[in-house]
Design a protein that fits this description.
Blueprint lengths: L2 H7 L17 H10 L44 H10 L8 H17 L9 E8 L6 E8 L13 H15 L15 E3 L6 H10 L2 E6 L1 H13 L1 H6 L3 E6 L9 E2 L1 H7 L9 E5 L7 H12 L7 E7 L5 H13 L2 E13 L8 E12 L24 H11 L6
Parallel strand pairs: 3-4, 3-7, 4-5, 7-8
Antiparallel strand pairs: 1-2, 5-6, 8-10, 9-10
Helix pairs in contact: 2-4, 3-4, 5-6, 10-11
């Protein structure tokens, strides 16, 4: 079957429909096929744009004679595809005379193979996330760069909970009980903790039309700066802006602001915020305590103050999620809005998407804890693990119902 006809007719190719090495296909044929097999970085919803066309980079005059094919990926039955790509990589391609072109083919086959081996096997990628700015307004494609992923730097990946929260922001902004005065915020009102790649903070700057301070550890902030810069034009269209800072949850009273945040926005190291956002911030036993400590250090003590958190429900991290809930309540914060939803992650050694159940919450101060005179220090918190309210009971039911989710 001809690849172009299959693409045009919307048919699904089998590996046997592809050029077979024993037939000695031309270099052009192999390059075209490998281009058509491009697997774009996963998007977690059909509305996400994946319009970056893949082309082969031909660097020499001889290699320019084998031009790249710009095409959208075709559907193909994955059975046998890994073996097909591996055979191309292992072949000496002796019937192709140009050594540079051989290198192109081997490199392209290796990339196609890594794309199908899960996010951990891939190098740096950039992908776009379509985020609605308002109910009736336009959606924007926020472009996020993710460096090569390692298990000890999970903040370099965009997680499902970040995407879900980013898409929910316009709804929260339209709900006065969730984000009071969201459309008329004074400067320096919004902070994101554990920003990672920055999707939530950038989406907040766009939706709320204000400046947002994105924070994380030093090794994460460099890429955070890059993403803030690459989305400046989008934020400008919505009267928003993004700045970055290093904020360590173990020492939340100190903050190392970027030069841009100091010069352009006049942020202060001791800044407090009306709204604080965090997505998927718990992945070690210490994190619940550290996160609540950071929230208490940076959240304004006023009735309009809110903390918005989205957490994936993974059985392995159930103790951390429950501890976070208990610590927030013990600190004088209450849930004023919450819900459950499903997203997708591409973490792991195998390709494909994995469904993830997520819990989002909006927190406000209990009346008795308003005002600095009633502030509770983190080390004064006594966690009442057995005092389960309705939210805690529902959370336990959700964990119990995960089954094969994780």
């Amino acid at each position: 079957m001809d690849n172009e006809n299959a693409e045009r007719n919307g048919q699904v190719l089998h590996v046997l429909d592809l050029p077979q090495l024993y037939t000695r296909p031309s270099a052009q044929e192999l390059l075209n096929t490998l281009t058509l097999l491009t697997s774009e970085p996963p998007s977690w919803e059909g509305s996400d744009t994946e319009d970056d066309e893949t082309s082969m980079d031909v660097k020499s005059a001889r290699r320019q004679s084998i031009s790249a094919v710009k095409a959208q990926p075709v559907q193909i039955n994955p059975e046998g595809l890994t073996t097909y790509l591996t055979r191309i990589i292992a072949s000496d391609l002796r019937w192709i005379e140009d050594d540079d072109v051989k290198e192109d083919i081997w490199e392209a086959a290796s990339i196609r193979l890594s794309e199908r081996s899960g996010r951990t096997a891939m190098g740096a990628i950039s992908r776009k996330f379509r985020i609605p700015a308002a109910k009736e307004g336009p959606s924007e494609d926020i472009e996020i760069h993710e460096p090569a992923l390692t298990a000890d730097n999970l903040g370099l990946k965009t997680w499902a909970s970040s995407y879900l929260l980013s898409r929910r922001l316009w709804r929260l902004a339209a709900d006065e009980s969730s984000l009071p005065g969201a459309k008329d915020l004074p400067p320096h009102s919004v902070l994101e903790l554990g920003s990672g790649t920055g999707l939530v903070g950038l989406a907040a700057a766009m939706v709320l039309g204000t400046d947002v301070l994105l924070t994380d550890l030093p090794e994460i902030v460099e890429n955070l700066d890059r993403n803030a810069l690459s989305n400046e034009e989008i934020l400008d269209r919505h009267n928003g802006s993004a700045y970055t800072a290093v904020l360590d949850w173990t020492e939340p009273s100190s903050m190392e602001l970027s030069l841009k945040a100091v010069k352009e926005a006049d942020y202060q190291e001791s800044q407090h915020f009306r709204f604080i956002f965090a997505a998927d911030p718990l992945y070690s036993p210490e994190h619940p305590g550290w996160l609540v400590q950071a929230i208490l250090a940076r959240l304004l003590r006023e009735a309009a103050a809110r903390v918005v958190v989205e957490l994936p429900l993974r059985t392995a991290y159930q103790p951390q999620v429950e501890e976070f809930l208990n610590r927030m309540q013990a600190a004088g914060l209450k849930i004023c809005n919450e819900g459950y939803e499903t997203g997708y992650d591409d973490w792991g050694s195998q390709g494909g998407r994995k469904a993830v159940r997520c819990w989002w919450t909006v927190w406000s101060w209990e009346t008795a804890y308003l005002g600095e005179s009633h502030a509770v220090e983190h080390d004064e918190i006594t966690v009442q693990a057995n005092d389960m309210g309705e939210s805690h009971q529902q959370l336990l039911a959700e964990f119990k119902g995960l089954g094969d989710w994780d």
